[in-house]
Amino acid sequence: MRNLSKILICLLLLAPLQNIKAQQMPLSDSAFASVITCGPGNDFYTTFGHSAIRVCDPARGIDSVYNYGTFDFNTKNFYLKFATGRLNYCLSRRQYLEYMYEYFYEKRAVWEQPLLLTHQELNNLYLALEWNYRPENRYYRYDLFRDNCATRTRDMVTSALAHRTLWTEATADTNLSYRELIYPLMDRKLEWWRLGCDLLMGARCDKRCSNFEYMFLPMQLMNQLDTTTFADTHRPFAAKTVQILPETKDELADSLSPTILFWFLFVVVLCFTVIGWSKRWPMTWLDAVLFGVVGLLSLFILAMWFGSAHYCTKLNFNLLWASPLFIYFAIALRRSNRWIVIAQIVMLVAALLILVTGWPQHFNAAVTPIALTLFVRLINNLRFNNNK
Asked: What confidence score (pLDDT) does residue 9 get?
């Protein structure tokens, strides 16, 4: 009887350990995980595509997609939080077919890459995703370059590995910057969006990226996974990419190039200025409008630099040509202090030099005619300005 009692006690002590082990290994041998990559859509916030993780276990009726790119449009002060980088994104979980229907409806391309994980690694990934899906864990601060749906997908699948490391082949276009990586995604159909991004993104966006940093873009993540292998065996980390949905969305219409528009504005302003010199037209209304608009732009750039949590809006040298001094010029007009006008002219020359050299920050091509337009009007200001 004593021996039987000892056996029962041991079984009772081992039972909780067996339950814990069962919870740690919830998926069957038929389960698999994959990375889902979605192509760009027609809305600007879908321009860069999307990444998610699929976990499927037919034996247990599990087929879920974990999506780190979810946000709520109904959030209080949504646009203010989005602009200042304080909008919370979250991890959502949806059924695979429901998730795919959304991209079928939007006519966007979708690819799938099954991950060649061990059973233990697959369970590690599943349990980590489930833990991350808890209400107290699912929210995070989105960052376009450093913390988004693609980087979260990358980090989750690599952190699930059990004592194995990965090796990624160098990409053909090495040492590209964040700005250069997103430029091809904003072609002639999105040139105004490209201008807006270039005005708000500072010098940090022009740092050269490593292969690891390239994976902030979903398509780059997909391409990198295609060439990623395990360091010890050189076996692939992901199976061959399969396209699930083709792209059938309508093409966006070409937009009017802002560079061409602002060159036209420069020519018009230059002609008016030359005629005004001979006719002695004051044209202060033109300076008030032009300087006022640029001055307001400078305040927005300053607000995004100092009042925003965005990594990419710091150290913005666009303030050399879109300077807060233009607010003063718009108010004072021909009564502006000559030395302050000269200081701003020097800053415009510095901005033009940055345009030519591309250092320390890349400026949009449309900045050239804008800076020259401002230069012409400031020279005109000096010509008719008697203030010292």
From this structure: 36
Q: Which residues contact 166 (CB under 8 A, 6 or more apart)?
A: 158, 228, 229, 230, 231, 237
pTM of the model: 0.87
Cβ-based neighbours of 250, under 8 Å, separated by 6 or more: 42, 107
pLDDT cut 90: percent of the chain above it: 71
Q: Can you give 304-354 as a three-state secondary structure string?
A: HHHCCCCHHHCCCHHHHCCCCHHHHHHHHHHHCCHHHHHHHHHHHHHHHHH
| 123/130 Cα distance (integer angstroms) | 10
- Range name among 72-81, 198-207, 318-327 with the lowest pLDDT average: 72-81
What is the DSSP secondary-structure string of 221-289? HHHHHHHEEETTT--BSB---EEEE---PPPPPPPPPHHHHHHHHHHHHHHHHHHHHHHT---HHHHHH
Domains of the chain listed by start with CATH number: 27-245 (3.90.1720), 258-383 (no CATH)
Peptide bond preceding 360 in cis form (omega within 30 of 0) = yes
